[in-house]
Write a structure and sequence with these properties.
L-arginine/glycine Amidinotransferase, Chain A; 5-stranded mixed sheet; 4-stranded mixed sheet; 18 strands; 12 helices; 432 residues
Amino acid sequence: MGVRVFSEIGDLKRVLVHAPGPEVDTMLPEDMHRMLFDDILHGVRCRMEHRHFRAVLEAFGVEVVDLQDLLGEALQEAPEARGSLLDGVGATEWLPPERRALLEGLEPTALARALVEGMSPGGEGADELWREAPLPVPNLLFSRDAGAVIGEELVVSSMKAGVRQREPLLLRFAFAHHPSLAGTRVLADFSTPRPRSLTPTIAAPTIEGGDLLVLREGIVLIGIGERTMTAAADRLVERLRGHPHLRAAVLVFLPAARRVMHLDTVFTRASEHECLVYAPMICDGSLESVSAVTVELSDHAAPGRRYTSLLAALRSLGVDLEPLHCGGRASYVQQAREQWTDGANCFAIRPGVVVLYGRNRATAEELYEHGYEVVEVGGLPWDEHGRCLRSFKHGKRYALLLDGHELSRARGGPRCMTMPLERLDAGAPGVS
């Protein structure tokens, strides 16, 4: 079936997600900051919010697949390869021989569940068992970060935090062995496991999918900041040079701050001519403007050119986007507050149809003033199977407000929760 993503906004056909499961229910308060959460989640509520998110995607004809399901099917398809997957897990995490033997004896679906949710409690000492190995990976909810499809190839990430190193290993295994993905070429694989003894200090280059955006104009944006290192960005640019369908890369230099953990926390594409931005950091001459460097991919000798803002860099490449302001235009305080709750992190289902968190009311008002119909997802009609019964008009612009009060506690928005596998786009190569 293959993959194909040459755009942030082209009609979405297939997308990879992971619904929050028991792995978010076993997090203790003392673990949450180590696991990169700012609060413990109410599992029932966040699963309901995620089901609504998935149902809205499906209402637009999108095929939604869950990474845990893909992993189980890949393990079923290639049982002889499970040893290599467990080798990778054991290289980065404490996995004693008796626990590895237990994992090797599980059937594929149970093994996939154990590698995502942790070992299921049971029997005497159950509370201690699930805290040993393998631990749960609650950040898998943010399927964007473990990798990215650029064009028709896969980039496998290397995660900054040690607690997330398993995620790209699971993604890589699913792509290598699942029948629907096994033919995907790997453009760059950064996921070489870091030995446990070196994890706190090793300087291996890291890169995460939230810092990678593919614009329909043949431009790849790469954020450099808290999670993605310059060395990894440089290596990816070298792999992109000479690409037949990509013409430029733009490196965006972000502050190394948790509130700006990825580029998509301050910049996302909403339509052909619009982007949703945290204006103080992205717009020209703003309070916190970050610089950007353009690199022509067709010319190996051409030096990069630095610009004082991302929008200026894009204009130099012929892409003039109107910025829609996260948090509205009236108040810096409101902009900063809504950026913190992922107000700039929208996800485009098609041009001009975006999903964002409903709690960001000033952001929703900004989109309304620019011609978007604002739709409260929680108020949509649903059938007994959880399918959305609302009909959406083709060509109409929608801002779909997702109830994300629990999901937003995990520090990621709608784009963070999605890894597109296939988009159709009139601006992409080979599509008319």
